[in-house]
């Protein structure tokens, strides 16, 4: 009789994990757990050797995968089946990259062509001289574009993009101060075209254009949405509505027209490369056997830490300023996808769900939070990301010091250091994985993001949860709307007092 997932998780928990030093006694460990993939944007090395992955744990995890129907779920993902069962939808972000159900790929290509037309029209001056774009969106409609723009346009952009998400007017005001209404377009990015923050910021942006002397402010607006009718109803001309499929989830949407600012800033060819980098990871994930699949391997390590060693957080440190927004992006991807308490069939999840994703940039974080990583009582698996080719023209010494610090941290976490003086002792045996990218470019960034999307999917599949809904965000929104509508009564005494004190109840 085959074991149930519950019995297999119990077996995983029962493993007495060898230390990392003991695991490295196996001569082929590095060769087995560090893999370099040749990808369209250049090689990326995925080194998972300094994690507690080992054959016994992997064998159990492979059985969990079998018991949870992982291979079938992966097929369903790429075939466009309705795997987002609670919302009755497919999750077709890979079709945006050309890997998916043929009809969905064709539809995505047609919508991309429409987007390309508009991008090129703006570049060619059809809308007059356009120097800036204020991209208004939130969550999945902002984090991906913000990451890509920050990572890829530090040397300049065809059009300067300012991403505004927060309802706090300070955010929009900062973008307005940096732009001239005469040469600025506005992108309204919202899958639903109903999100309060985005619609409120949109109205203020229109006012700003109007006050700045733009005769037809609506003529400067482009809508990026899966609800094109709503955008037209709001006032955007149909020719400037760039739709995307309902089956593309918000936090997976930067490959669709939500990526418009990326294409506008880089040029459309850059966006095509971004998609190609992601597609290469799609194919690796889809076609590579579990044992050598870098995506599955990363997820297996994640599951060792959450399920067997009960780690509650995981940390991501980008040793590259250009990737400073990656931890923010991953927080939504991982926590909104897998922060669940029920399984896809609605029954309680009896295992820990997603860990808290957090992180920052190296070397800054070394001087702030690494103390706890090295000597704190929490066990925190760490991901390091570094890029071989520097993103600047300064003395190469900067990059040498940056990379040597990155690698030193992984080595120190693993090796530790004994001392008779407890305060100066490092326990070691603390895990890390390192992704070493040759060159940061649209294709390699696309690959990195797709790698994390699928890694998140594998964890969900292994736990039996649906990573594609996010009902947990609704309750707070509904209460805020109730307060805004003047119905803010009947709350707990603390909330009542806060409302009264701020005079907004
Ligand atoms: O509230 C969460 C959320 O629905 C995210 O899932 C989504 O990315 C974000 O809000 C923005 O939604 P929309 O693109 O519909 O404006």
Per DSSP, the total helix count is: 20
Shape: globular
CATH superfamily of the largest domain, called what? Glucose-6-phosphate isomerase like protein, domain 1
Largest sheet: 6 strands, mixed
Rg on CA atoms, Å? 24 Å
Strand content: 5-15%
Q: Which CATH architecture of the largest domain is right?
A: 3-Layer(aba) Sandwich
CATH class wording of the largest domain: Alpha Beta
Taking the alpha carbons of the first and last residues, their distance comes to: 60 Å
Mean pLDDT equals: 97
Kindly name the structural category.
alpha/beta
Bound molecules: 6-O-phosphono-beta-D-fructofuranose
Can you give a write-up of this model?
The chain has 505 residues and is an alpha/beta fold. The protein has three domains: 5-67 and 288-469, Rossmann fold (3-Layer(aba) Sandwich), CATH 3.40.50.10490; 99-272, Rossmann fold, CATH 3.40.50.10490; 472-502, no CATH class. It has 20 helices and eleven strands. The strands form two sheets. A six-stranded mixed beta sheet has the order 1-2-11-10-8-9, with helices on both faces. A five-stranded parallel beta sheet has the order 4-3-5-6-7, with helices on both faces. Helix 8 (143-152) runs parallel beside helix 12 and helix 12 crosses helix 13. The longest helix is centred in the N-terminal third of the chain and has 22 residues, at 102-123. The model has no long low-confidence stretch (mean pLDDT 97). The structure holds 6-O-phosphono-beta-D-fructofuranose (F6P). Residues 138-141, 190-192, 195, 198, 250-251, 336, 470, 473 line the site of 6-O-phosphono-beta-D-fructofuranose.
């Amino acid at each position: 009789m085959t074991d149930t997932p519950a019995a297999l998780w119990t077996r995983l928990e029962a493993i007495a994990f060898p230390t990392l030093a003991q695991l490295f006694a196996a001569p082929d460990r590095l060769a087995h757990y560090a893999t370099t993939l040749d990808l369209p944007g250049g090689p990326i090395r995925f080194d998972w050797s300094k994690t507690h992955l080992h054959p016994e744990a992997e064998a159990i995890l492979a059985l969990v995968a079998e018991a949870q129907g992982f291979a079938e779920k992966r097929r369903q993902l790429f075939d466009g089946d309705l795997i987002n069962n609670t919302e009755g939808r497919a999750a077709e972000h890979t079709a945006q990259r050309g890997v998916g159900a043929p009809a969905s790929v064709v539809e995505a290509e047609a919508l991309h062509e429409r987007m390309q037309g508009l991008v090129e029209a703006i570049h060619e001056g059809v809308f007059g001289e356009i120097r800036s774009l204020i991209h208004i969106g939130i969550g999945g409609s902002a984090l991906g574009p913000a990451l890509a723009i920050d990572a890829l346009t530090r040397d300049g952009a065809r059009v300067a993009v300012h991403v505004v998400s927060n309802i706090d007017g300070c955010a929009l005001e900062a973008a307005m101060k940096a732009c001239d209404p005469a040469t600025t377009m506005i992108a309204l990015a919202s899958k639903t075209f109903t999100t309060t923050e985005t619609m409120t910021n949109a109205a203020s942006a229109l006012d700003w254009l109007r006050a700045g002397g733009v005769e037809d402010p609506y003529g400067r607006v482009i809508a990026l949405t899966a609800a094109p009718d709503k955008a037209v109803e709001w006032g955007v001309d149909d020719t400037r509505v760039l739709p995307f499929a309902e089956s593309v989830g918000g936090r997976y949407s930067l490959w669709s027209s939500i990526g418009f600012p990326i294409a506008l800033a880089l040029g459309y060819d850059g966006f095509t490369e971004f998609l190609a980098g992601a597609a290469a990871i799609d194919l690796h994930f889809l076609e590579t056997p579990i044992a050598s699949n870098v995506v599955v391997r990363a997820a297996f390590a994640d599951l060792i830490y959450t399920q067997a060693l009960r780690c509650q957080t995981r940390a991501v440190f980008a040793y590259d300023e250009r990737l400073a927004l990656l931890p923010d992006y991953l927080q939504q991807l991982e926590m909104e996808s897998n922060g669940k308490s029920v399984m896809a069939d609605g029954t309680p999840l009896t295992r820990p769900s997603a860990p808290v994703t957090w992180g920052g940039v190296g070397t800054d974080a070394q001087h702030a939070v690494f103390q706890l990583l090295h000597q704190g009582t929490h066990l925190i698996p760490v991901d390091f990301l570094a890029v071989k080719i520097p993103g600047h023209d300064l003395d190469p010494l900067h990059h040498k010091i940056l990379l040597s610090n990155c690698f030193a941290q992984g080595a120190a976490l693993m090796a530790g250091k004994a001392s008779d003086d407890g305060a100066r002792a490092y326990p070691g045996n603390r895990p890390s994985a390192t992704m070493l990218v040759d060159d940061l470019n649209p294709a390699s960034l696309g690959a990195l993001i797709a790698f994390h999307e699928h890694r998140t999917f594998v964890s969900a599949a292994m736990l039996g949860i649906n990573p594609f809904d996010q009902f947990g965000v609704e309750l707070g929104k509904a209460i805020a709307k109730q307060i805004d509508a003047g119905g803010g009564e009947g709350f707990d005494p603390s909330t009542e007092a806060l409302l009264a004190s701020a005079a907004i109840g």
